[in-house]
C-alpha cells in the first residue's frame, strides 16, 4: 500500500543556476532532506509552482528536491533572444544539474517532470547519453509525449490552426488566453506544433531525438492520464517511454478503469486533490525503489 507523509507544508529556498549564455535560472530547494536529490520541472505555460505540491510531498518523504523554472518562467530570467525546447534542454538543464551537484556534493539524482519538462530532460540526455546513464538514477514523466498529439483529424486541424496563429508572434500571453500561469515562447510552441504535425522529433541540424533515446538505460516511469486526449494522449506517452533503451520501465494509465479516482486530464495528473491522494504517493514509491 502506498504511504503518504503528513499533509504539512515545506518551505523552499531559492538558488540561481547560471547558463553558459548568462541566463539565470531560478531553482527552488524543498526540504534539504538527507535522501537522494531529485530534480523536478514543469511544462509549458507554467513554473515551479505547478510542481510545488509534488515537490513538498517528496521533501516530506526525506528527499532533497530541486524544482526549477525554465527561462522566461517563474523567477528565472526572461531572455531577449528567442528560445525553444532545445534552448531549455541544452542551456537550462545542464546549468541546474551542475548547481545541484555543487550544492549536494553528488552528481547522482532522480529526474522528474510534467509534460514538456519531460521532453527537455530527455533531450539533454539524448545529447549526453554517457553522462546521463552515469548520473541519472531514474526519469519519471507525467503526461509527456513528443509527436502524437495530431493522431486524430480534429486534433491535427487544431494544431495546424495553432501553428498559423503563432506564425507572427513572439510571446504567448498565457493568463490573457486562460491557458496557464506563465507566458510562453511562441518559437517554442511552433516547435511543438512541427513535431506533432510531422511525427518527427528533430532538433537543430536535424538531430533525431527519438533515434537517440535507445541509448539511454536509466529506469523510466511514465504516468499518462486516461482523460488526456489532446496534449499527451496515453499511447503517445507510452510510445515515447518505450523509445528508451531501459529494461526497467513502469507505464501506467491513470483512469477509473485502472483503479484510479478519476480519468486524469493533462493538468490534474500533476496538481489536484486526487493527485495528492494517489499520484504523488505513487511517484514517491517509484523513487524509493530506484535510489
TrEMBL record:
Keywords, ordered alphabetically: Hydrolase
InterPro entries for this protein: AB_hydrolase_fold, Carboxylesterase_BioH, Hydrolase_4
GO molecular function: hydrolase activity
Keyword Hydrolase found: yes
Keyword check for S-adenosyl-L-methionine: no
Pfam families: Hydrolase_4
Domain Serine aminopeptidase S33: 36-252
Descriptive protein name: Alpha/beta hydrolase
Amino acid at each position: 500500500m502506498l504511504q503518504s507523509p503528513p499533509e504539512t507544508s515545506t518551505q523552499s529556498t531559492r538558488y540561481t543556476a547560471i547558463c553558459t549564455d548568462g541566463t539565470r535560472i531560478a531553482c527552488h530547494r524543498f526540504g534539504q532532506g538527507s535522501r537522494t536529490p531529485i530534480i523536478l520541472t514543469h511544462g509549458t505555460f507554467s513554473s515551479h509552482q505547478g510542481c510545488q505540491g509534488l515537490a513538498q510531498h517528496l521533501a516530506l518523504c526525506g528527499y532533497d528536491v530541486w524544482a526549477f523554472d525554465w527561462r522566461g518562467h517563474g523567477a528565472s530570467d526572461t531572455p531577449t533572444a528567442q528560445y525553444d525546447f532545445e534552448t531549455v534542454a541544452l542551456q537550462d538543464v545542464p546549468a541546474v544539474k551542475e548547481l545541484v551537484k555543487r550544492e549536494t556534493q553528488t552528481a547522482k539524482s532522480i529526474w522528474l517532470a510534467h509534460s514538456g519538462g519531460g521532453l527537455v530532460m530527455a533531450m539533454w540526455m539524448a545529447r549526453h547519453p554517457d553522462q546521463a546513464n552515469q548520473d541519472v538514477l531514474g526519469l519519471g514523466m507525467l503526461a509527456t509525449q513528443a509527436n502524437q498529439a495530431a493522431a486524430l483529424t480534429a486534433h491535427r486541424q487544431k494544431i495546424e490552426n495553432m501553428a498559423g496563429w503563432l506564425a507572427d508572434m513572439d510571446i504567448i500571453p498565457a493568463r490573457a488566453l486562460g491557458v496557464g500561469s506563465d507566458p510562453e515562447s511562441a518559437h517554442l510552441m511552433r516547435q511543438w506544433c512541427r513535431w506533432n504535425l510531422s511525427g518527427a522529433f528533430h532538433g537543430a541540424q536535424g538531430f533525431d531525438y527519438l533515434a537517440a533515446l535507445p541509448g539511454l538505460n536509466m529506469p523510466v516511469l511514465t504516468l499518462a492520464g486516461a482523460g488526456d486526449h489532446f496534449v499527451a494522449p496515453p499511447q503517445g506517452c507510452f510510445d515515447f517511454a518505450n523509445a528508451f533503451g531501459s529494461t526497467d520501465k513502469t507505464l501506467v494509465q491513470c483512469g477509473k478503469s485502472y483503479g484510479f479516482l478519476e480519468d486524469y486530464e493533462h493538468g490534474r495528473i500533476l496538481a489536484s486533490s486526487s493527485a495528492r491522494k494517489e499520484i504523488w504517493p505513487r511517484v514517491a514509491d517509484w523513487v524509493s525503489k530506484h535510489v
